[in-house]
Design a protein that fits this description.
heterotrimer, A mainly alpha (355), B alpha/beta (214), C alpha/beta (744), A: 355 residues, mainly alpha, Fumarate Reductase Cytochrome B subunit, 2 domains, 3-stranded antiparallel sheet, elongated, B: 214 residues, alpha/beta, 5-stranded mixed sheet, 9 strands
Chain lengths: 355, 214, 744
Amino acid sequence: MEGSGSRSISTDVDYFRPTVYGLAASAVLTLLVVVGSRSLLHYDSALFGYTVASVAAFGAIVFRYAIWLQRPATRAYWRRGWQLFLDRGRIGGNFGTAAKTIATNLLEQRFIFKRSRSRWLMHLLIMWGCIFSAAITFPLVFGWIHFELEGARGYRAYLFGFPLQTMDGRGLLAWLTFHALDFTALMVIAGCALAIHRRLYDRGAIALQQFLLDFVPHLLLIAISVSGLMLTASSLWFEGYMYSFISLSHQALVIMTLFFLPFGKLFHIVQRPASIGVELYQQRARELPQAKCRRCGVEFASEMWLGDLKEVVDKLGFDYTMAGGEKLQDYCPRCKRILRGLAYAGLADKTDRVF
Amino acid sequence: MQETMFIDPQRCIGCRSCVAACRECSTHKGYSMIYVDYLDRSETTATMPTVCMHCTEPTCALVCPADAIKMNEDGVVMSALKPRCLDCRNCVNACPFGVPKYNSEMHLQMKCDMCYDRTSEGLKPMCASVCPTGAISFGTYEQIVPLRRTKPVNAHIFGNQKVETKVYLMLPTDEREIRVDGCGVFEGRVAVDGEPTESWIDTQVEETDKSNEF
Amino acid sequence: MSKVENLEKIIERFGPHLHDAPDGGWSAERNIEKVVPTHCPYCAVQCGMNLLVEKNKVVGFEPRYDFPVNEGRLCPKGVTAYLQTHHPDRLLRPLVKRQGEFVETGWDEALDLVAARFREIQEKYGKDAIGLYSGSSLTTEKTYLMGKFARAGLGTRYIDYNGRLCMVSAAAGNNKAFGIDRAANPWADIPLAEVLVIAGANCAETFPVLNKFLWQQRDNGGVWIVVDPRETPTARQGDLHLQLKPGTDVAVANAMLHVIVKENLIDAEFIANSTNDWEAARAAVEKYPPAVAAEISGVPAEKIVKAALLYGRAKTGMVMHARGIEHHSNGVNNVLSYINLVLATGKIGAPGRGYGTITGQGNGQGGREHGQKADQLPGQRSMLNPEHRRHVCEVWGLPEEELPAAGVSVVEMFEKMRAGEIRGFLSLCNNGMVSLPDTNRIRESLEGLEFNVNIDFFMSEAARYADVVLPGTTWAEDEGVTANSEARVVKINKAVDPPGEAKPDWWIVQEIAKRMGRGKYFQFNNPREIFDELRVASRGGNADYYGISYEKIERQHGVMWPCPTEEHTGTPRLFEDGKFYHPDKKARFHAIEYNPPAEVPDDEFPLALTTGRVVYQYLSGNQTRRIGFLVQQCPEPYVEIHPETARRLKINDGERVKVVSRRGEGIFPALVVRTIRPDTIFIPYHWGETLAANQLTNPVLDPTSKIPEYKACAARIEKIHDRRLPILGEQKKGLSQSEVQRGK
């Protein structure tokens, strides 16, 4: 929905601090690249383009995240979330809750399963495909991982310059390691194919989707995966035919995607973990005293939540104060509908009564 | 002038045809996003149909921490973007009209998007198509005014807050807005034995209210 | 003997089960192969709708904006109608009851059994020992075929149809007053009327889409006068509500005419030129000044005067009524007293000036035209008229002496079953265990049968008592015509093939006839062939279909009969030339005296019980009580009680109470509402067995129309200290939409 044509709904934004945070983040990442590659000793200069793009994209994401946190509602959740999390007597339990939420929400993604099974499978393939790919490529790009030949066919992996175990270069493990990106590419292609199929046949999706927001990310991911597979194919079976061209295209596609991250659909990747905080917030809210609807007496939200919400609503410049001093939000949703109906019923009709 | 919805509660016969038909909308297939509430069944058969009014400054969108609720170029406030919605339910309780629905298992908010699948193809929304009486209509302001004795307004005043909407409410008076305030009781209600209680047919028996869940 | 021995098992196997999603679940990923324009299977508005077909399954609907009656509008029943077609409760193979259990068989076996048993019964007890009970939700082709099947197939005189429980008082009244049984005006006239008198019609809940016209009239500045014991949504929205005691319509209508005469608002010229018997009617209403009527009906005299002046002074106006005034032992008189108003003011036969009953069933009009009524032959001809008999016998090629005499009404038929005169029974498209009055007596009648056959697509409450149940088709699986309440003949189109081995009703009936050696009268290969014979059979009758064709219906969005020639485009409005259908071309007044309902409240049964419908259920509920959405809105019957009465009886809102009448009793949750009269209670009737409102109702009949008195009997309420909550409240106990859908 966002992008060119849409009207943005936002309050005044402070760009200064997010810029500082963004630059700082980029600087930190640069520093880590230098440190992790042992002063660029293990750094592959061929990957310089990737590195620059990654550093820039990381800064941009942090910038975007900081902007996002300026939304009054987001800030309220952020602050209250951390406050609840760090509550002394509860921190142990909170870790447990957070772990559970991470497992069900972020790893298993049960909520997507509940939305639709095929979407869950689609998302699982894309997500894990991307996560594994990123987990492999970024450390390689930053020089955080490198391999050294040890003996006739042994390889030793180094992480941040520290040696890890060796493996047999022709063994299964090595084969899996060296081809890991091919498998993740296949996962991503399958997931994107499912997604695109849905976008072509689901009437709801067709109505809502926009090319730039909903198709381009999938097309980019497919393009990255296919060009990656082509690299493998070129080196394995075609003696490096067109390798450098494919490699350059691959790099261009990856960089485009990295710059796409802070905007549009892909931002949810960094945004989603916030659900851990929301979940914690709501769990605590359930244990705290509940607010009763002013009209029907139903317990419909916790007092803490409603208090936070009313504050946010005020901060946004609304004034829903009613004649009796209460806020409109002190009524449950159903009573708000009925209040409106009763107000309508109370109108004097031009000719006769309304109801 | 743009096409929009016109709600004329006076005509509502409480048949919930709109509620059933709403499930046919492709953007939330199988789930109804519309409400028909009795005002006070003990006293009257009057019912209030509620669809999303599509505020010009949507409170729901502004209180969304995930920035998931967007307005499209026609001023239609859409359901939360699926990848973003965190199921915090701020929108559910902030909306002055009591409209958004949520489902915690799905981590999802959904609401009336004026049948975007239909309106984007030039078709009328489902509810406005099937409504037997015209309590929910779809068309332009210019089309509706000559047809009705009631007058369309698109401003509500909740307490001190004026809320302007894309959707119109048909008023039987000449006022330019409708004022909603305080704890409502149906006019002419005779309280028996103290507090007026709601009929079982229009209230929940238990203390939980799940009418805003899908 | 056709008893139900294991009710729970039958319910477990055949439902009603709730089903609430299209085939394959709710999905926006559909590849719609066909869009079939047709009409709603339910009420007599016959709203147009498009069915969406995917892989031979109806998977949704699309509003049919181009059909002029509803322009896309539908009520909640119409919106969910398509969910019936693939419902898991559908009967897919013939069922034969063996040792009290239904066993699936093949068609040949089942049909042979039916034919053999019918033949055996007829040989033993005579031709008339078989009774046929048909319905008005069938297409007109099928209703025609049922009449022919009784007379030419089985040779029995006993056939009747469930329109007998519907609007037959209106039919009788219309015939008496106008010489024809049809709504006089098209609905397009409604917006043109300054004043509408809506008597005993809860249009909001029973004909929701009709409200389109009502509100158009309102938008034009029109006024509604609503006569109803309850403040229904229609009464609430109206301008003047005459909230009368059930069954006192004659007093109110006579008093209105009294005022109109006194104020000289009559149309003397029309009365003189176009009517008979005015003096008698005038003399009769003389005795009903508003004060007297107020005493009888409980409606304040000034309201009656106001209503009379509003209607009398208006240049244009229409009187419409429905079951509220028709379901009475004085049903025909109620109708005639309102028709007197119409004739006295001459408000008939012109745009915005008219009259009509609002038929209830989908084909309530078509179903009472072509011979499935006890005394009727095709084209609204009479069994008693030798000329009519000759005409129909000629069309059928049936020797005249083989055509049986006229039969009796359905309630009387059930009495004959109890008396052992009728031993074999075939019913199609009805559910007497819900819809007939005095359920316990009906059960005895069914249980006493030697052989009982039921054709239906769901196992209805009545079908449970059958020995053989044959699976028929829903409206989406067959084609044919129906006539809506304004006598607009419309075309039902086939969308999908029947599921399993289900067969169209016309095929089933013909197969039985063939097996009984009467095949030569039943050689139809499709509904169109039946329609073609019907056209010829109806030719020259009042309901003349001769000029109607399937193609003309599609082209014109319906054809209103009479349509005597192929060039004729139909007759939307009757009596435009001031000519009526009696031999002297004049309409007739009737002098009507008020008579109370057969049973009035007394010390033992101090409340008047009236019954009716809710918007979410259709008639006997066999179709709608299986649709999840509809059942969630109204899962069980309740009893409406006024708060004063409730306080006197110490009854709380939502508390289950026992309602007792002289015939039976039932337990219902109390809905305490100020919208009903303190001396009256109301129960919706759509449920069967222990939930049936008709356990309580009085089976007394109107002497002319033989309609039962559903709308007024005496009852009392007993407190039983039942702690169970109403189901609706229980359901709402914290269940969200998706939880309800998953059946949590």
